[in-house]
Amino acid sequence: MELADFERLLGVWSKPVKNEVEKGAIRKFADAIGDPNPLYHDEAYAAKSRYGRLVAPPTFSRTFDYGTIPGLEMPTEGLIHGEMSYKYHKPILAGDVLYASFALTDVKERSGKLGRMILLVFTYKVENEAGDLVQEAKSTVIYRPEGGGAK
C-alpha cells in the first residue's frame, strides 16, 4: 500500500464490535503481564473494593476485537510498532459488555536512514452499552513499503 491508499481511509471507523469482559481473561492477562494486584485476581478482595468486582488491568483493552476498517488491508511485512497511549474514562470490570472500534486518523510520509516510512496513527475507542466512553487509545504504526529489514 502507498500513502494515497491510506489517505483515502482517513476517518473511516470500523463497525463497533461487542466484547464481553470475562473474569478468567482478566486473571490470565494480569498473569501474563506479571501483575499480582488482588483487584485483578481475587474476587472476594475486589468485591470489597469500590468497584465491587474484578477490575481489568489498564491495557487489557488491547485484547479486544476492534473489527476491521473497510478497505484497509494492512501489509504483513515492514510494520514497526511506534507508540501507544491511553486515556481512561471508566474502569473495565468483569462482566462488562463493551463495544470497541477504531479508525485511521492520521497518516504522514517521512524519510529515515533506512528509507521511506509511512506513519499511521490509529485511534481506538471503547464504549459501554449506554454509549459512554470507557477508554480511548492512540497507536502509531510505522510502515516501511520497501520492507522491514535493514539493507
Which descriptors would you attach to this protein?
single chain, 151 residues, alpha+beta, Thiol Ester Dehydrase, Chain A, 5-stranded antiparallel beta sheet, 4 helices, 5 strands, elongated, HadA-like
Describe this structure in words.
The protein has 151 residues and is an alpha+beta fold. It has a domain at 3-20 and 58-143: Hotdog Thioesterase (Thiol Ester Dehydrase, Chain A), CATH 3.10.129.10. Helices cover 17% and strands 36% of the residues. It contains 4 helices and 5 strands, in the order H-E-H-H-H-E-E-E-E. It has a 5-stranded antiparallel sheet. A hairpin with a 4-residue loop joins strand 4 and strand 5 (133-143). The longest helix has 11 residues, at 23-33. The protein is elongated and about 55 Å long.
Q: Major β-sheet, in short?
A: 5 strands, antiparallel
Can you tell me the CATH topology of the domain at 3-20 and 58-143? Thiol Ester Dehydrase, Chain A
From the alpha carbons, calculate the radius of gyration and give it in angstroms.
18 Å
Overall residue-averaged pLDDT value: 94
- Provide the spatial order of strands within the biggest beta sheet: 1-3-4-5-2
Strand portion: 35-45%
CATH architect. name of the domain at 3-20 and 58-143: Roll
DSSP helix fraction: 10-25%
Number of helices: 4
Low-pLDDT runs of 5+ residues are none
Protein name: Acyl dehydratase
Domain FAS1-like dehydratase: 9-136
GO molecular function: (3R)-hydroxyacyl-[acyl-carrier-protein] dehydratase activity
Organism: Alicyclobacillus vulcanalis
